[in-house]
Amino acid sequence: MRFYNHKSSAIFDIYLKLYDSELSFEKKKLIFKSLLVGESWSWKVTGISKLCLESFKKNKFEKSRKLKTKRQTVKNVIRHQLTNVDNTIKDIFITKRTKEEWWDKILTEEKTHLVTKDELKEEYYLFTDIPEDGGYFINGTTGYLYSEKEKLLLKHINKTKILWKRSNDPSMQ
Which of 114, 131, 141, 15 has its CA nearest to residue 55? Predict the structure, then answer.
């Protein structure tokens, strides 16, 4: 079993092979994006929006729960990537990086917030931080994993006084 922060040397080795290959940039980008799928350290959730927290609260902090007649699910919650992955990929294929530089770049720019789809249509959303080192909302093969650990975290956040930050404020990110 891998821990959520496991850094695979095989993925870095593949990056080096891709960097040195004669493949087109578009092909490299496609292959590289595929490498990130299902990795527990990619798409790391570092914040949750106010409306997203309210959605979980309305559903008793369950991602999905069965009611008498139907199943109620927290809907419209997505992971919003804070930096454009295409720009990150372009940058790492312009300049060859050492293993340390590469991991620093990837882990810094693979951060996300849990938000509602409606919030992305607005100029900004309000959010609060989630501890990065807790392994919360780990990337699954599709979507994020949600367990008792995440449920307890959201309940704790809900009970504390929250200092909300604006998503479009560069000094707060």
Answer: 114
Backbone angles phi, psi at 137, to 5 degrees: 55, 50
Q: Are 146 and 137 in contact (CB under 8 A)?
A: yes
What does DSSP assign to residue 162? P
Give kind and range of the element (H or E) at residue 65.
strand 64-66
Contact (CB, 8 A) for 11 and 39: yes
- Dihedral over Cα of 19, 24, 29, 31: its sign: negative
- How far is residue 55 from each of residues 42, 44, 45, 116, measured CA to CA in Å? 24, 20, 17, 9
Helix (H, G, I), strand (E, B) or coil at 62: coil
Q: Could you report the per-residue pLDDT of 113-167, keeping only the tens digit for each?
A: 999 999 988 999 999 999 988 889 888 777 788 889 999 999 999 999 998 999 8
What tokens does 113 get?
Answer: 């917030």
Dist CA 127 CA 141 (whole Å): 25
pTM of the model: 0.81
One-letter amino acid of 113: H
Q: Please report where in the chains the tokens 């106010």 appear, as a residue.
A: 50
Alpha helices in the chain (DSSP H): 9-20, 25-36, 50-58, 85-94, 99-109, 117-120, 148-159
